[in-house]
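lol forgot to send this yesterday, sorry. struct tokens for the thing we talked abt
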């Protein structure tokens, strides 16, 4: 107050537009202690061109905890250089902003980036309502959001063991994630085959596009990690942590401990479903188990690409379209045409690239 009481509106306005970003950032820090009317200038500074100024404004908003700042802070979650400060600022409001967070999740115009970052905010609000809201998104199609929801629930359970996490939705999510894992395993089996390698190497994709087997391996590991996070939602956290360490070990006796633990905590159906994931004899055996248990069948590279294209992951969809240019069947071309107006820019770009490549090759 000592610093802000001598700042009139004219002085603040001059500092708001001063060419020195350090002065604008300093103004943002001072405004954290100002009265409510003066603090409203923080909304202007939160949209400043300089990220340091935006960060300072967001930190001051979190310190002030004025209700009018909540929508601004939620919007700042989309701002890559500032989103960590926005997380922290929102978490300082505690449970008082849960209604606003629910509204942001449900609003159709909320961007995918903001929606994906909301679980991190909820994980810092250790209340049952945070858990209940996250549980409604546990089986969402967006793979990034699904992963963030799972890790947020895991963090809440670790920090607030008394929160109630219903078992049935978690088991449903485990079955869903197992289906994703087995689909990836089947796709990898074909993508790593000698014929597929020869086919895929025939086309030079853009430099930013990773090799298909490498990307699939990464997503398979992520899927396995999500399965253990889900197990940690209703099993003792320390036991899950030790089991995951054993699972990722290259030592056979440690992996056997993970399997033994799995058998002791899961019912028969889930043991049958997850056993080949926790203790895979081979990638081929895992893929075959998935096909048998879930009815997924991948008989060719085309089937593997279609499985990815028809799936919910935009990154895998885009990668599949780029590599599909090496084996452009009628079905794959039709999928690419349909995807040229996809909501995700990466998918649109990849589909258009594939169609252009196929057209050029046919001339």
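and heres what i got for the seq, position by position
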């Amino acid at each position: 107050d000592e610093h802000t009481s001598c700042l009139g509106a004219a002085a603040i306005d001059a500092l708001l537009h001063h060419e020195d970003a350090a002065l604008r950032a300093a103004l943002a820090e001072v405004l954290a202690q100002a009265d409510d009317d003066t603090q409203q200038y923080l909304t202007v500074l939160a949209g400043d061109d300089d990220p340091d100024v935006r960060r300072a404004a967001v930190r001051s908003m979190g310190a002030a905890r004025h209700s009018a700042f909540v929508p601004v802070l939620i919007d700042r979650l989309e701002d890559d250089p500032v989103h960590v400060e926005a997380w922290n600022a929102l978490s300082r409001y505690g449970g008082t902003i849960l209604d606003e967070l629910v509204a942001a999740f449900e609003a159709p115009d909320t961007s995918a980036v903001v929606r994906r970052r909301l679980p991190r905010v909820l994980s810092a609000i250790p209340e049952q309502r945070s858990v209940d809201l996250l549980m409604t998104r546990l089986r969402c199609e967006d793979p990034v959001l699904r992963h963030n929801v799972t890790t947020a629930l895991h963090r809440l359970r670790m920090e607030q063991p008394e929160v109630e996490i219903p078992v049935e939705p978690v088991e449903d999510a485990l079955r869903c994630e197992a289906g994703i894992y087995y689909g990836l395993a089947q796709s990898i089996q074909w993508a790593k085959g000698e014929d597929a390698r020869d086919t895929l190497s025939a086309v030079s994709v853009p430099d930013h596009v990773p090799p298909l087997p490498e990307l699939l391996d990464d997503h398979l590991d992520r899927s396995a990690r999500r399965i253990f996070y889900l197990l940690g939602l209703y099993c003792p956290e320390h036991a899950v942590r030790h089991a995951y360490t054993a699972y990722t070990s290259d030592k056979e006796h440690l992996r056997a401990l993970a399997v033994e633990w799995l058998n002791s905590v899961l019912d028969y159906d889930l043991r049958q479903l997850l056993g080949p994931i926790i203790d895979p004899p081979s990638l081929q055996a895992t893929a075959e188990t998935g096909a048998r248990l879930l009815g997924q069948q991948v008989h060719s590279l085309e089937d593997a690409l279609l499985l990815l294209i028809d799936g919910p992951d935009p990154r895998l969809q885009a990668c599949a379209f780029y590599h599909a240019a090496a084996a452009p069947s009628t079905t794959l071309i039709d999928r690419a045409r349909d995807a040229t107006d996809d909501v995700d820019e990466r998918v649109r770009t990849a589909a258009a690239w594939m169609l252009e490549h196929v057209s050029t090759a046919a001339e």
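The mean pLDDT is 87. anyway ping me if u want another try
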